[in-house]
Amino acid sequence: MLSVFLSLLILFGVLQQPALAFKKSYIVYLGGHSHGADVTSADLRRVADSHTQLLASFLGSEEKAKDAIFYSYKRHINGFAALLEDEEAARIAGVIPSSSLWNKARFGQDTIIANLDTGVWPESKSFSGKGFGPIPSKWKGICQFDHKEGPLCNRKLIGARYYNKGYAAYAGVPLNSTYNTPRDVDGHGTHTLSTAAGNFVAGANVFGFGNGTAKGGSPRARVAAYRVCYPKMNESSGECYDADIMKGFDAAIADGVGVLSVSLGSDSVDYINDGTAIGAFHAVKNGIVVVASAGNSGPTPGSVENVAPWFITVGASTLDRKFQANVQLKNGSIFQGMSLSKPLPEDKMYTLISAAEARAADVSEEDAILCKEKTLDSKKAKGKIVVCLRGENARLEKGEEALRAGAAGMILCNDESSGNELIADAHILPATQLNYTDGLIVFSYLKNTKNPQGLITEPKSVLNVKPAPFMASFSSRGPNAITPAILKPDITAPGVNIMAAYSESTSPTEVPSDKRTTPFYIESGTSMACPHVSGVAGLLKTLHPDWSPGAIRSAIMTTARTRDNTGSPMKDADYQKATPFMYGSGHIRPNRAMNPGLVYDLTVNDYLDFLCGIGYNSTMVGQFAGAYYDCPNNYNILNFNNPSISVPDLTRSVVVTRKLKNVGKPGTYAARIRSPPGYSVTVKPNLLKFEKIGEEKSFKLSIKVNGRRGAKSVFQFGELLWSDGKHYVRSPIVVASPNQ
């Protein structure tokens, strides 16, 4: 089997003749091959293709890579020799350190990652099979694309299925051929699958912006798509139905999937009535890591979705990159905005008008300011830059309304709930988006200036933005409405302005007048954050094939970070301090997750005991177990071995039990506690000594109210940290008490 991307190591360079004075001969060593005795010419050709593809990801094109490579080591030594500039060689050697999780886990090689979503665009370069060896023998799935379209699955995209009978039952009418295929006509499924495990693609961009090499979290993993989501039939209908979702889970388990990425959800309901939770339980029971999105109903408290403890539930936060398109007013004021829209047709000042002032007859100011459909008067808006307010209707729909009214451009100002969260949209007219504070200033300028004018600058990519990450306002929040003793979300990951592959059967805005298509697009949502964690889970599956889904979940959670790139505590979109109800354990840190030191492991029986503890009887639990299950007596769900600790209704004091497993070197771990305000927290024992891998030790955490008036009815937050000086195993503590 092909063993590529083992370690990117530049061995040496030899000066060439003067004609090539600026280039040197470099060897890129990638380890060894394991072809076996029956290696074929096709296998060797795939090795060479993989070398070309790797180098192209740094040089920008396969043509440049082919020109540079003069040897490809294909039989026993894995690597290639190429003529490179010093800067190019340094970039190859330095971009991916040998100590990184990517290298240690061989880029997720041969782990199978699948998603339940809107399907897949198989022609995307993110799913190219070039350079991949034979499909892993554990794979039992199929490819349901119409054979008339040719062999659309390959050694990368190894499977694709569709399930739509639940959707059809709701529709009540026969479905046409566009539904009976795994092909993605929406873009969502292609985007999430390529984020989790897309291959290396050089020169990826969105309408020329963000040019670079696209790659998923586990770029050498195999992928499969299960289409279970379809276009909404009406405003009250769903897109993904439980019957189809559960069928997707059932098939994925049988097919041999290792990680399931589930960027879908709905309002939380009891687990036994939640098809996604039931399907996920059976997947985890069979050793599959299931990662799910937290939902996009923030900042409403208690809005988090996919709250069962066997999910890794993911919130969304920002990157340190933005696509900046500023607003410049005639008075000299400049405000930083965000956009992927085309520039204004002329470099000049345009008349600005509030959408409320541009409203059509018989339209309220409240509807017009939001630029709702058919609210603007073209006689008032034509040729001007219309200033709209975010909220209620979709951002891209506002741009469509401004264009319909003949506006030259649009400035979209955040409402208060959106705060500082800026989304890079590819509007169908020149446009940009401003944060809430700057938007207030612009509206004030319009109101108090006789002839307000301004312009929108052309978008440009800006890196190393600070502060980052901060939470997206749309990211759903805790507390967990079903089981408050289980903190959700578990983790946060990049979910704002994420570039990934896209379906070329739809426009990026999905508005009727937009005829553009693009192989890559930028999307935002917890749907985009979820596959980032799925990709990391794939790497951990490759690196630690013996770890359980619970161990992988714990490693990701306990190694997360709660500070931004300024060293300050993470913030929400309004720049107020964020809490574990927003980010769970914190922002994911993949390189730390590969060596967490200790994990809070969970078995299937732990999950069954949890169900007993929330009141399910043995018969109900048996439905999950597959047989009658004898519930333990007096089980307390506060002792469920969760990596986070949540006590939602503490009257005086409580003792919580947890168990840690050593997955690293022998060591002695000491406990450090930051007690929630109004409470005292102690741990016994406060030292845990581990002498071998797999050894488990328990501890008890005592939480006590500080006096009659010490505790508060609102939730308070603290932290438990176990450390041996090298590893830092961190758990958030969340406590609330009834009114004293």
UniProtKB/TrEMBL annotation:
- State the superkingdom: Eukaryota
Which residues constitute the signal peptide according to the record?
A: 1-21
* Subtilisin-like protease fibronectin type-III domain mapped to chain residues: 639-735
Cellular component per GO? Answer: extracellular region
**Keyword set for this entry?**
Glycoprotein, Hydrolase, Protease, Serine protease, Signal
Q: What InterPro entries does the record tag this protein with? A: PA_dom_sf, PA_domain, Peptidase_S8/S53_dom, Peptidase_S8/S53_dom_sf, Peptidase_S8_Ser-AS, Peptidase_S8_subtilisin-rel, Peptidases_S8_3, S8pro/Inhibitor_I9
Report domain Inhibitor I9 positions: 25-93
Q: Which GO terms describe its molecular function?
A: serine-type endopeptidase activity
Q: Name one GO biological process term.
A: proteolysis
What residue stretches are annotated with the Peptidase S8/S53 domain?
108-571
What residues make up the catalytic site?
A: D117 (charge relay system), H188 (charge relay system), S527 (charge relay system)
Enumerate the spans annotated as PA domain.
Answer: 368-440
Q: Which family does it belong to?
A: Belongs to the peptidase S8 family.
Protein's name according to its UniProt entry:
Subtilisin-like protease
Organism in which the protein naturally occurs: Erythranthe guttata
